[in-house]
Design a protein that fits this description.
about 170 residues, single chain, mainly alpha, Four Helix Bundle (Hemerythrin (Met), subunit A), two-stranded antiparallel ribbon, about 5% strand
């Protein structure tokens, strides 16, 4: 792999947001808790504190980042569903990953959060009508994002960070 930052490639906006494609994205979100839990199963603290690449986050930070990022995404989607194209607040992901909770807390805390959050998130997404996916929010950096695009992004995000951990496991023969 040439670029350890993007083990599944960089995100690209989907050309279509048909219901079947959205259903596949929702399925990825449904399976993330199980897949992420399996990816870190049986890792000890030394392994959890190993960066997935040079100058990258540790496995522990990646797991906590997924919880932080997906919690933000869930709230942003709820804002988009209840307001007319709200402008959401960006956050400094790197700074969040450097906070003490992301550097030292056991990963099971975030895995439990991800499990509960994804149960709510998937339920919400499955309740939406096709037209709901055309609404969205204004991101201060990425601009206007409709919910179909956001859903595709978090499908990719889920697979992207799980792949970081699985690739590291293979490289380190854990």
């Amino acid at each position: 792999m040439d670029d350890l930052r993007y083990p599944i490639g960089q995100f690209s906006r989907p050309a279509s947001s048909m219901a079947g494609i959205r259903a596949a994205h929702i399925q990825t979100l449904r399976l993330l808790p199980e897949r992420l839990t399996a990816a870190v199963a049986d890792l000890d603290d030394h392994q959890l504190d190993t960066p997935y690449r040079e100058a990258g986050w540790t496995v522990r930070q990646v797991v906590h980042h997924v919880a932080d990022s997906h919690a933000n995404a869930y709230v942003r989607i709820k804002l988009a569903l209840t307001e007319d194209w709200p402008t959401i607040k960006a956050y400094n992901e790197t700074a969040w990953a450097d906070l003490a909770d992301a550097r030292w807390l056991p990963v099971n805390i975030s895995l439990n959060l991800i499990t509960a959050l994804h149960a709510r998130w998937v339920s919400l997404l499955e309740s939406l009508a096709d037209d709901d996916f055309h609404g969205g929010y204004e991101h201060p950096v990425m601009g206007r994002q409709n919910l179909a695009q956001v859903l595709a992004l978090y499908d990719w995000h889920s697979r992207h960070h799980t792949a970081h951990i699985l690739h590291l496991r293979r490289r380190m023969s854990w």
